[in-house]
Amino acid sequence: MHPYYPTPWRGIEGDLSTIPNSANSERRKQQLHARILIADDEPRARASLKELLRFTGHEITLAESGREAIELLNSNNFDLILLDLNMPDLNGHKVMEHIDQYTIDCDIVVISGEATFDHASLALRNGAKDFLRKPYQPEELLRTIDNTLDHRRLKIENKQISQRLNESESLHKFIVNNSPDMIYLLDQEGRFAFINDRVEGLLGYDAKEIIGQHFSKLIFEEDINQANYTFNERRTGDRATRSTELRLNCKINDGPRYFESRTVPIELSSIGIYSVDEDNQKSFIGTYGVARDITERKQAEELIKYQLHHDLLTNLPNRTLFRDRLNMAMAHSKRTGKKLVVMYLDMDRFKIINDSLGHYVGDELLKLVGQRLRSELREADTLARVGGDEFNLLIPEINDIQDARNLAEKILRLTAEPFLIKNEEIFISFSIGISVYPTDGDTKDSLIKHADIAMYKVKNSGKNGYAFYSDRMKSHFAASLDIENGLRKAISTDELCLYYQPQYNTMEEKIVGVEALVRWQHPDKGIIQPNEFINVAEESGLIVPLGEWVMRKACQDMQRWQTEENISLSLSVNISVQQLEMDQFVSKTLAIIKRHNLDRNVLELEITEHAIMQDMEKAIDTLSRLSHRGIRIAIDDFGTGYSSLGYLQSLPINTLKMDRSFVEGIKSKGDNSIVTAIISMARGLNLDLIAEGVESQTQVDQLNSAGCHLAQGFFYSRPLPEDEFLKMVKSQPNSIN
């Protein structure tokens, strides 16, 4: 028994009742709720300390010896031990050595009667946070415990903060290095202070190779001037670089290259970084930037650009690109004084080949013809596919007309050799018309038209040949000119009329729509069918006012049917490629609909695949603008063109009209796989499908069983004048709203 504790409170000086409410103070509330171990062999000393700490709210555990203290420390977690040095079995120094040896996370405050400097110094060296000599003031003990626990709480908080910072830094590093974008920092001199690991996958450099290098090392030579103001950005805010395109150099190795290109296109966003001193003065310290690889986007853009200017079947230039190159060639010829030649090539008997051997063989034949012709032309020559079996050929800078004649004869010899498709030899021939700039025309339209006229001269003379355009050929087209003049008059004097052919829902057995078809009421010849004047209208440009008249008249009739007859049907009107090319076509169409007070979704505009493929870019733009305003779009004669089926997903289409050639081939028993495939494709693309040219019950039954329930054709009705059409509709009450 220690001599210092003859009574239970001996060793604690002062009155406990005078202890301030520090135990309940705000400070104590913020302290760690601690687990405290009291290790003292004197029972009254232990009891005194426990009673004193009862005010603090800490959890107290007692140990009556050094050995018991060690056992408790090994099996429990304590925040603080109040340790006496003089204990008979194991003294306090041994306990501290055990705590240090086994790295036990517990703070130590020594409370001992050993007041010598050596004992205190040894205790502090062994890890004690403080040393109190018995007897002590209660305030002093509580303050020491508070300070020790405060220090421990701060140490724990700092450790947690440091751990969170490390975790955050690791996460940030992981995110940065695994970013799909290249992230970098430049110093004031434009040298890389940091760059993430993406640089290796993007350009082939290890990040360590780039650190310290000037940014110009990575910039493609032609883009260096732009990069000086963007990659090495100094501006901030709205003036900083946003989504600017640059090209970066790939690393060139001595060994095999792993990059398809020496440069990589990127989209760059960057901003200047500044520090602010005590006087609020900004100093430029570097640049932060993010570079995104846009290789795939560029490749997609190039592909789309290519597709918009090329025929997708043969990969030859299309009409749009041909006309652009003809414009440039004419300008060049005008400067140099040299002539150029335009050839119009039309394959003879192609329709017979296509119908007899099938569309696949027809497509393959067109591709082989394009390849064979292209292989024999100069690099400067342009061969374009401008129609189903029609090609245009531009030959710039010819020295003599004989050169054009020689080339035409060469083409005829080339195409006279058989084409092998599916182990079958196919023989073809061409009719070629030739016009020469500037003698046969000084505009691209006149040159193409005159070459076309010369080609028809060959057609009419037995085909398989060539002819140069001459003014004498105009006499052969006198009839066409008469039709053109008469049609021009017919449009202005109201000699035109509309016939209407119903469209049936075969399941509900009712009329759901109608197609407006133009007829010419000639004062001398009577009713003239459209196949006798539409081609002339297209060639002369009259198709535009003719098409506008048809749309205006059809909408006018539909308005009257709705208001006077209580008939409301879907109205289909055919449009031409020339109308699509008009800048005012959309606004004129909307004005006609508004003038006749029709809902926009009543009108459905029909256009052929062939017309769309003449200028895909323009067609997509115009049809999209119409579709966004509620007007429905239909592809007429679907399946007869050579467009890419992929474009059906990008075009704003509502309806496909299956060409009559497929319907004609429907059999009650046999292979209807093409029709079934078209129906399945329309269903997959969520498009309506109308079968054209339906003429028998067998065709209706087969279409119904395959899932096509909209039909149009002579089986139901021929095109009818308006009064007869209305009688038909009224005779079927379920077709009247």
What descriptive keywords fit this protein?
alpha/beta; 27 strands; Beta-Lactamase; elongated; 23% strand; Rossmann fold; 737 residues; 5-stranded parallel β-sheet; 8-stranded mixed barrel; Alpha-Beta Plaits
Summarize the structure.
By secondary structure, this protein is α/β, with parallel strands linked by helices. The chain is 42% helix and 23% strand. The strands form five sheets. It has an eight-stranded mixed barrel, surrounded by five helices. The chain has a five-stranded parallel beta sheet with strand order 2-1-3-4-5.
Specify the helix fraction band.
40-55%
Q: Whole-number radius of gyration?
A: 46 Å
Mean pLDDT: 86
CATH class division of the largest domain: Alpha Beta
- Provide the domain count: 4
CATH superfamily of the largest domain: EAL domain
Uncertain runs are 1-30, 255-259
CATH architecture assignment of the largest domain: Alpha-Beta Barrel
CATH topology of the largest domain: TIM Barrel
Taken as a percent bin, the fraction of beta residues is: 15-25%
The 3D shape can be described as: elongated
Structural class: alpha/beta
Number of helices: 27
Instruction: Give a short account of the largest sheet.
Output: 8 strands, mixed, barrel
Q: What is the β-strand count? A: 27
Termini gap: 113 Å
How would you describe this protein?
Residues 1-30 and 255-259 have low confidence and may be disordered. The longest helix is centred in the first third of the chain and has 40 residues, at 138-177. Strands 18-19-21-22-23-24-25-26 form an eight-stranded mixed beta barrel, surrounded by five helices. Helices cover 42% and strands 23% of the residues. Strand 23, helix 23 (647-650) and strand 24 form a beta-alpha-beta unit. It folds into four domains: 16-159, 3-Layer(aba) Sandwich (Rossmann fold); 179-293, 2-Layer Sandwich (Beta-Lactamase); 312-469, Alpha-Beta Plaits, CATH 3.30.70.270; 481-731, EAL domain (TIM Barrel, Alpha-Beta Barrel), CATH 3.20.20.450. Helix 3 (66-75) packs parallel to helix 4 (92-101) and helix 12 (350-357) packs across helix 13. It has 27 helices and 27 strands. The N and C termini lie far apart (113 Å). 33% of the residues are buried. It is an alpha/beta fold.
